[in-house]
Design brief:
Layout (H helix, E strand, L loop, with lengths): L4 H28 L10 H55 L6 H22 L20 E3 L5 E3 L7 E5 L2 E4 L11 E4 L5 E4 L1 H14 L2 H54 L3 H25 L4 H5 L1
Antiparallel strand pairs: 1-2, 3-4, 5-6
Helix pairs in contact: 1-6, 2-3, 2-5, 3-4, 4-5
Length: 307
C-alpha cells in the first residue's frame, strides 16, 4: 500500500485533532463538574436529566404551595382559637347573669361586656389575610364573611365553597374553611316538633338582650346554645389541625421524593473527578507522544534517505 505524504499528514492531523477534542471535552467537564455539558455529549442522559429536573420543579412547587397553605391555616387557627376564648368568656358571663343575687344594674353591666365580646367575635369572623382576602368567606374572599342585612341583623354573606389545591401528584388539600362551618347556625326546637334556625350572631344578640332585660327563659336558652356555638368553633379547630397534620405528612413525603430525585440526577450528571483527571492525564500523554512522533517522522523523506 502506498502512503503519500499528504495522506500521512491528513491522518496525523486527524488523530491529533481527536485527542485534543477529547482533552477539551474533559477540561470542560472538570470546569463544570458535570458529565453531560451539552445535550450532544449524551442525548439519552440529557433527556433523562431534563425529565428529572421537570419532576423536581413540580415537587418543589408542591412544597411552596404547602407553605402558602400553612400560612393561611395558621391565620385561621389563630382566629378560631381567639374566638373560642371569647366564647368561653361569654358563657362565663351568661352563667354569672343567671345568679339570683344580681340586680338589673348588674346584668346591664354584664350585657355591656357581652356586647363588647360579641363585637370582638364579629371582628374575628371577618378577619383578613395579608392580601386583604376574608378568611371565612368561602369562595367570596373579597367580601366580608358576616355583614348586616337591611334590618341590622348579622348574617353569613359568604358561601360554602371549599377551594382545594394540589400538594402532590395525587393529593389535594382544602385551602379555606367557610365561616358557616365554624360560626354555625343554631337550630331550635319548640318542643312540639317545630324547628327553626338562627344565625350565630343572631343567637348571641338574643342572649345579650335577654340578659339586659332579665328574661330568664331566653337567658337559659342562650346559655344552652353557648355549648353548641363553642362546639362549632372547636370542630373548626379540629379540622384545621387535621389539615395541617396531613400537610406535614405530605411535606415529609415530598422531602423524600426530592432527595431521591436529586440523588438520581446527581448519579447521572455529576462528574467522577478521579476518573476524569486520570483520563485527562492519559490524553495529555497521548497528545504529547503523538506530537513528538509527528515532529520526527515529518522530517523524514526519500531525499534524506538518498543523501
Amino acid at each position: 500500500m502506498k502512503i503519500s505524504t499528504s495522506l500521512y499528514f491528513d491522518r496525523s492531523t486527524d488523530q491529533l485533532g481527536k485527542v485534543q477534542a477529547s482533552m477539551s471535552k474533559t477540561q470542560e467537564q472538570l470546569s463544570t463538574g458535570l458529565q453531560v455539558v451539552k445535550p450532544s455529549d449524551a442525548p439519552d442522559k440529557a433527556s433523562l436529566v431534563t425529565r428529572l429536573e421537570t419532576n423536581l420543579a413540580r415537587q418543589t412547587s408542591y412544597q411552596d404551595t404547602i407553605k402558602a397553605i400553612n400560612v393561611r391555616k395558621t391565620a385561621e387557627e389563630t382566629a378560631m382559637t381567639s374566638a373560642s376564648d371569647v366564647m368561653t368568656r361569654i358563657k362565663e358571663l351568661a352563667v354569672e347573669a343567671g345568679n339570683d343575687t344580681l340586680n338589673v344594674a348588674d346584668r346591664q353591666t354584664i350585657a355591656l361586656e357581652m356586647k363588647t365580646l360579641r363585637d370582638q367575635m364579629l371582628s374575628l369572623a371577618n378577619v383578613q389575610d395579608a392580601n386583604g382576602n376574608y378568611l371565612f368567606s368561602g369562595g367570596r374572599a373579597g367580601h366580608p364573611a358576616f355583614s348586616s342585612d337591611p334590618m341590622g341583623n348579622i348574617q353569613y354573606s359568604g358561601d360554602q365553597f371549599r377551594m382545594q389545591v394540589n400538594v402532590g401528584d395525587n393529593r389535594r388539600i382544602n385551602l379555606n374553611t367557610p365561616g358557616s362551618d365554624v360560626f354555625i347556625r343554631i337550630v331550635r326546637d319548640d318542643g312540639n316538633g317545630n324547628r327553626s334556625s338562627v344565625d350565630f350572631f343572631g343567637a348571641l344578640d338574643e342572649m345579650i338582650n335577654a340578659v339586659k332585660s332579665t328574661d330568664r327563659i331566653k337567658m337559659k336558652r342562650g346559655l344552652d346554645e353557648c355549648d353548641t356555638m363553642q362546639n362549632g368553633i372547636s370542630n373548626g379547630l379540629g379540622q384545621i389541625g387535621a389539615d395541617m397534620e396531613a400537610m406535614d405528612f405530605q411535606n415529609s413525603n415530598l422531602d423524600g421524593s426530592i432527595l431521591q430525585l436529586k440523588k438520581t440526577k446527581s448519579d447521572i450528571e455529576d462528574l467522577d473527578y478521579t476518573e476524569a483527571i486520570t483520563r485527562m492525564n492519559k490524553d495529555q500523554l497521548a497528545l504529547e507522544a503523538a506530537q513528538s512522533s509527528f515532529a520526527k517522522i515529518s522530517k523524514l523523506s526519500l531525499f534524506n534517505y538518498i543523501n
